[in-house]
Specification:
heterodimer; A: mainly alpha; MetI-like fold; 2 domains; B: alpha/beta; Rossmann fold; CBS domain Like; 6-stranded mixed sheet; 4-stranded antiparallel sheet; 22% strand; globular; transport (chain B); ATP binding (chain B); ATP hydrolysis activity (chain B); Gly-betaine_transp_ATP-bd (chain B)
Chain lengths: 340, 361
């Protein structure tokens, strides 16, 4: 601590005369980051491989098949209504601009990679935070910081550490998008009915069995809400991440801004919105059906249910027909698939 | 009830103090004999269970009766060590469960102890069948095996057609039957019933009590049954312990509790209980010697006869048909007399000693 030379210490306004040198100390992080570049290489490779994996698959498949896949997925997990919304949104996305599809897939790959890594990191941390009050107290201010500190602040150190490109983009996205998953995982597990946990203990379940057979299944709707929030936050980081040379829709928006090209910016922006709608509806649908489906198995509804029903029907046409007439299981399956 | 003399559950001066300074508070209680209020004041600790000792024999149904907050739910959770005691010991079939390590404790819970909860505590994400099979699943039994056993348990509680439903599709009474099936599926030696029927409406409660008593008689399980309802305790229990403020104030058979309440708290409790189906002729009769000494020689030939084990209800039926006293007879020999006055006082629940009941026949 040193006094600035030109001002004298004033008790009523002490701050102008005190300089703790925090900014220059914090700038040391940059130096540290540069010095430790090699240490980060394995992590960098893992993240890079994840992105390349998603991107490779998404770019290789023709758009129509990708759309069909997402529509079927939405139908299976969330029902027909969501399937229609997903289909319309993806078609609208493709129609926005002839060159937009590959860009959207790049963005989707970045977002999915970020979310996947968030889940891998966030679930265990969330579970730990639910189990230990002390850990929860320690991690809360850290999560607050991650969510509120402006992304530009950590953009520079991350670039120094990892270099520009997709990997840095994913890392800054994770910093921003991870907290809600941890918070909601912790909340979900804490909210599990303590009576049910006690019952499991009374019947001799060990802590791991309680975790996997009781707590996680019952916390799933809340955890899925966390995943949903994480996806939304990851999408909202797309434009900022493009400042460190991440390709995709965000980059389109950024470049259009630079050239004051409102049209291109709107097209890119709408693309991000449509992707957000698709991902949001699918994850929200999963959250709801987890609670509301309740009474039947997941494979009894949606396209798989339809397929299974068709197979049974074709194999034993007479038997299936009689069962249908007498109101047996087959009827439940077929009506479930038409509802679902 | 057939019962051998080895206790299956034995609690030895069990204490539970809740709070951060529990150990210090416990020490103060033992040295200075602090009461519940003083403990709360000086240490900020709550006295949950105070020096509870009891033992339950094999096949016996032992009821613990007390109002809410009397510590009965805390006490029952010591028996499978869901709660650690501050002092004292619990023995299950002669083994002190305080000495078991975690693994042995879990094995004991899954093999020997079944528990039913007031709030059912069924797992909402599992079907009835999967719920009932839980204890077997935890033990590592294969799917086919455990489902077969679980189906039998479900059939025992008459829920055969509901095994693939989820708990929230069932009524409260049916849910608690699932709870019961879950507790008996693993064929434990001991059943812990924590106010199992309290949350149910009266008719369903009665049905489940009947079902439970039939099952208990058939399976001969040692049962610890918690209730706040004295009628229920009397109906179900072979013996009853009455709890107040964490302390057991009386242990006895239903008849003892009703006719010889240990203090005013218990007597207030039993005041409203009908004695008709509890109290026997042996308890209210005047022994033949004392009757003879008071009234002089008498001829009991025209008197109606009752057995010592006859309940008041039966005695009342007999008395309707005669103006004379009843003669209590065993092996053809009259051993006592029940006068009209003694019968009425018996039904009221007052004992003959308070009254000078025989003054004028």
């Amino acid at each position: 601590m040193r006094m600035s030379e030109e001002t004298t210490f004033n008790i009523l306004n002490p701050f102008t005369s005190l300089d703790l040198g925090i900014a220059s100390w914090a700038d040391g992080i940059k130096g540290w980051a540069i010095a430790n570049r090699s240490a980060i290489q394995p992590l960098k490779r893992v993240i890079n491989d994840t992105i390349m994996g998603f991107e490779g698959v998404l770019q290789a498949i023709p758009p129509v098949i990708t759309i069909a896949f997402f529509v079927l997925l939405a139908w299976q997990l969330c029902g027909q209504r969501v399937a229609v919304i997903v289909g319309v949104s993806l078609i609208a996305l493709g129609l926005l601009d002839p060159t937009i599809w590959p860009l959207a897939m790049t963005t989707l790959a970045i977002v999915l990679s970020s979310v996947l890594i968030c889940i891998v990191i966030g679930l265990p941390i969330g579970i730990l935070a639910a189990k230990s009050d002390r850990f929860h107290t320690i991690i809360r201010p850290i999560l607050d910081t991650m969510q509120t500190i402006p992304a530009f602040v950590y953009l520079v150190p991350v670039v120094m550490l990892v270099g520009i490109g997709n990997v840095s983009g994913v890392i800054v996205t994770i910093v921003f998008a991870l907290p809600p998953l941890i918070r909601l995982t912790s909340l979900g597990i804490r909210q599990v009915d303590s009576n049910v946990v006690e019952a499991a203990r009374a019947f001799g379940a060990n802590p791991l069995q309680i975790m996997f057979k009781v707590e996680l299944p019952l916390a799933t709707p809340t955890i899925m809400a966390g995943v949903n929030q994480t996806i939304m936050l990851a999408l909202s980081m797309v434009v900022i991440a493009s400042m460190i040379a991440v390709k995709g829709l965000g980059n389109e928006v950024l470049r259009a801004m630079g050239r004051l090209d409102a049209g291109k910016a709107i097209v890119g922006g709408l693309g991000i919105v449509l992707l957000a709608i698709v991902l949001d509806r699918i994850t929200q649908g999963v959250t709801q059906t987890g609670r509301e489906r309740g009474y039947r198995h997941w494979w009894q509804g949606g396209p798989i249910g339809l397929l299974l029903w068709a197979i049974t029907f074709l194999r034993r046409p007479s038997a299936a027909a009689t069962e249908a007439a007498s109101g047996g299981d087959t009827v439940q399956i077929s009506s479930a698939s038409s509802e679902g | 009830m057939t019962a051998s003399n080895d206790p299956v559950i034995e609690c030895r001066s069990l204490w539970k103090v809740f709070g951060e300074q529990a150990d210090a508070a416990m020490k103060a209680i033992q040295q200075d004999g602090l009461g519940k209020e003083e403990v709360l004041e000086q240490f900020g600790c709550v006295l949950g269970v105070r020096d509870a000792s009891f033992s339950v024999r094999k096949g016996e149904i032992f009821c613990i009766m007390g109002l809410s907050g009397s510590g009965k739910s805390t006490l029952i959770r010591h028996v499978n060590r869901l709660i650690e005691p501050t002092a004292g010991d619990v023995l299950i079939e002669g083994v002190s469960i305080g000495d078991l390590d975690n693994r042995a404790l879990r094995t004991m819970r899954s093999l020997k102890i079944g528990m039913v909860f007031q709030n059912m505590a069924l797992m909402p994400h599992r079907t009835v069948l999967e719920n009932v099979a839980f204890a077997l699943e935890v033990r590592g039994m294969t799917r086919a095996e455990r489902f077969e056993i679980a189906e039998q348990a479900i059939a025992t509680v008459d829920l055969g057609g509901w095994k693939n439903h989820y708990p929230d599709q069932l009524s409260g009474g049916m849910q608690q039957r699932v709870g019961l099936a879950r507790a008996i599926a693993a064929d434990p030696h001991i059943l812990l019933m924590d106010e199992p029927f309290s949350a149910l409406d009266p008719l369903i409660r009665k049905q489940l009590q009947t079902l439970f008593m039939a099952l208990a008689a058939q399976m001969n399980k040692t049962t610890l049954f918690i209730t706040h309802d004295l009628d229920e305790a009397i109906r179900i229990g072979d013996r009853i312990a009455v709890m107040k403020d964490g302390e057991i104030i009386q242990i006895g058979t239903p008849e003892q509790i009703v006719t010889e309440p240990a203090d005013s708290y218990v007597s207030d409790f039993v005041a409203g209980i009908s004695k008709l189906h509890l109290v026997t002729a042996a308890r209210i009769m005047e022994p033949i010697e004392s009757f003879e000494a008071r009234t002089g020689p008498f001829d009991a030939n025209g008197w109606l006869r009752a057995a010592p084990g006859d309940l008041l209800n039966r005695l009342a039926d007999l008395s309707i048909d005669t103006d004379l006293p009843l003669a209590v007879e065993t092996d053809g020999k009259v051993i006592g007399v029940v006068t009209k006055k003694a019968l009425i006082r018996g039904i009221q629940g007052r004992s003959r000693e308070d009254e000078g009941a025989y003054a004028n026949v």
